[in-house]
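[Q] Does anyone have a clean structure-token version of this?
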Amino acid sequence: MIKKEIQEKRIRGYFIDATKTLLKGEGLKSISVRNIADRAGYSYATLYNHFNDIKDLIFVCVNDFQAECAEFIRNETAASPRGIEKIRAIINAYVKYFVQYPGIFDLFFLEKISDITNKQSTVEMIYYLTDRLCSEEWTYCIDEKIVSAGEAETLKAEIRNVIAGLLLFYINRGYPENYQEFINLTQNQINHILDR
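[A] Here you go.
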């Protein structure tokens, strides 16, 4: 890479990091061109040299957050046995990630998609995140005849919706009132779905 390309990549990275920090800490309400530029250490006009608009920048952050979530889950579940137990561990780590970063949860599940991106594929990317995180294990379970392909699809849908609902009530409604009660409720629901 030539020097100018390296510098442009670095500046772009500063804007991405600044936006991710704001989103993690305060959520989408903290996002403005000026806030991002101030945190990145550049003028707001410079942002438009690297991104079409804020939605373009947020889309990059959504992709990065999904990769970060996947890495967090890989680290949390490395020692888990294959199959249903690994799926259970992945879902528990997924929940833990979003409890740690409620701003990311809000970005993914509460904000209007039109406020964060112009790309319809982002909706599906977010909606099917748990499916992608567990895909190797679902394939393993189907291949090992632990579940059929049809059962796996039903279980995936139940997990997607139940976990999003539980996180919504805990993160944004404070129910249950304490973390341990929330974890117990979440694990009971996961067990109910997976231990049929």
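[Q] Thanks! Anything notable?
[A] The longest helix spans residues 149-173.
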